[in-house]
Amino acid sequence: MTTAQPRPAIAATGLRKSYGDKPVLKGLDLNVREGTVFSLLGANGAGKTTTVKILSTLIRADSGDVRVAGHDLAHEPDAVRAAIGVTGQFSAVDNLLTGEENLLLMADLHHLPRDDARRRTGQLLEQFDLVEAGRKPAATYSGGMRRRLDLAMSLVGSPRLIFLDEPTTGLDPRSRRNMWQIVRDLVAGGVTVFLTTQYLEEADELSDRIAVLEGGRVVAEGTADELKRRIPGGHVRLRFGDHRHLDAAMRVLDQPSRDNDPLALRVPGSGSLRSLKHLIGRLDDHRIEVEELSVHTPDLDDVFLALTGKPATENEKATTR
Ligand code: ATP
């Protein structure tokens, strides 16, 4: 028996885009399942915003086949636009209007009848914790409130697919967590989220699947766990009280290597209970005393470094644009 595959929310093959003679996307393939969070992870200038702009009809690709929300991007851009919401680096918030007026204006653009517009605006102000702020001009909002309003505005038309371009860049940790909860709630309500981020932690927290964009191509794709498994680097770190125990451990353990700390060693391994039991048994058999033991499993930082040759921190931006 075959089970029907759900329709992909986004299916792109061979997406290419150059600015002048500078190629930015060199044949991107993407597949995003409905009802999931898909993260496009990449350094500054990797082409994340360009991808979002293409998928959301703001600019045209040079070539490639793309279907978004079941519609052909090149031939049915209006149908795509009607099915999606976009928010991110090109904020649609009008500073002179209040939060509520911004939402009502959006409702007007979506041709919602007046009563529906009021109802939807009230719902969104409530959902995004902006009821009180909704009466004040957006110019007075904090970065976190502005992001929430921007996202609320992209939801006025009840899209089933939303694009979030670096939704938490520049936000403080609390506002960031707030935004993550909003994304989770949207997905729980059946919305598909296409997210771009430079934050590994964010991709790890939210995504069903992650694609790493580098050099105009997707260089790796999978769940956070799948990506982590592809990267060697898991080890157990042992710290000893003196050199006598360390030297003894060097002789009896499998493939030990030195650590920056002269009294510590690293032993390759996954850190599974079974391998730890084996390791501790071996140390006990030889009466080797260990002062500290810690397990290091590769994280997305290791993945990013291995795939792009750059540490993630270099890519993290401190300010909002
Ligand atoms: P960031 O994290 O810094 O926002 P990004 O991954 O979103 O980066 P893009 O904004 O898509 O990257 O830019 C990709 C490359 O294309 C960059 O080198 C950028 O300078 C260039 N680029 C983007 N827009 C234009 C444009 N309109 N004209 C010329 N070059 C552009």
Care to describe what's here?
The protein starts with 7 loop residues before the first strand and ends in a 6-residue tail after the last helix. Helices cover 36% and strands 26% of the residues. It is elongated. The chain folds into two domains: 8-93 and 141-229, P-loop containing nucleotide triphosphate hydrolases (Rossmann fold), CATH 3.40.50; 235-296, Alpha-Beta Plaits, CATH 3.30.70. The chain is of the alpha/beta class and 321 residues long.
Q: What are the salient characteristics of this protein?
A:
Alpha-Beta Plaits, elongated, Rossmann fold, alpha/beta, disordered C terminus, 321 residues, 12 helices, binds adenosine-5'-triphosphate
Low-confidence stretches: 313-321
The second-level CATH architecture of the largest domain is: 3-Layer(aba) Sandwich
Average residue-wise pLDDT: 88
CATH topology of the largest domain: Rossmann fold
Q: State the end-to-end CA separation.
A: 51 Å
The residue fraction in helices comes out at 25-40%
Sheet with the most strands, sense and barrel status: 6 strands, mixed
What hetero molecules are bound to the protein chains? adenosine-5'-triphosphate
As laid out across the biggest beta sheet, the strand order is 6-7-8-3-9-10
Number of helices: 12
Number of DSSP strands? Answer: 14
**Which CATH first-tier class of the largest domain would you pick?**
Alpha Beta
How much strand content do the residues show?
25-35%
Dominant shape: elongated
List the secondary-structure elements in sequence, H or E: EEEHEEHEHHHEHEHEEHEHEEHEHH
Total domains: 2
User: Structural class from helices and strands?
Assistant: alpha/beta
